[in-house]
Design goal:
111 residues, Leucine-rich repeat, LRR (right-handed beta-alpha superhelix), 3-stranded parallel beta sheet
Length: 111
């Protein structure tokens, strides 16, 4: 799929209140795509599970996602495993997401 195809999808999902689960594994998503996903996470009020593992998301994209997660009340499970995020992202995420329940469900998949 790639980042260019992901942008209009994310824009459409921002206003969708019905979608609860989205699997975007292995779609060639990079930091730019992670920025689109972060916007979607911020504005969507319904998505509770997002799988984006096996993509090309690096530290910058991980920061965008972590910042969006700090603003989201709905997203409960995020699988971003098998990306190249780096260990320092885990430290930032633990700081901005103080809720142990949510943090444990999401942070366990960062590895």
């Amino acid at each position: 799929m790639g980042d260019s195809s992901l942008q209009p999808i994310c824009e459409a999902i921002e206003a969708n209140r019905s979608l609860r689960f989205l699997n975007l594994n292995a779609n060639g998503i990079s930091d730019l795509g992670a920025k689109y996903l972060a916007s979607m996470i911020r504005y969507n009020n319904g998505l509770s599970v997002l799988f984006i593992n096996w993509n090309n998301i690096r530290f910058k994209g991980g920061i965008d996602l972590a910042d969006a997660l700090s603003e989201s009340q709905d997203l409960q499970i995020l699988d971003i495993s098998f990306n190249s995020l780096g260990a320092s992202l885990q430290l930032k995420y633990n700081f901005i997401c103080p809720s142990p329940t949510k943090r444990d469900r999401i942070a366990a998949t960062i590895g």
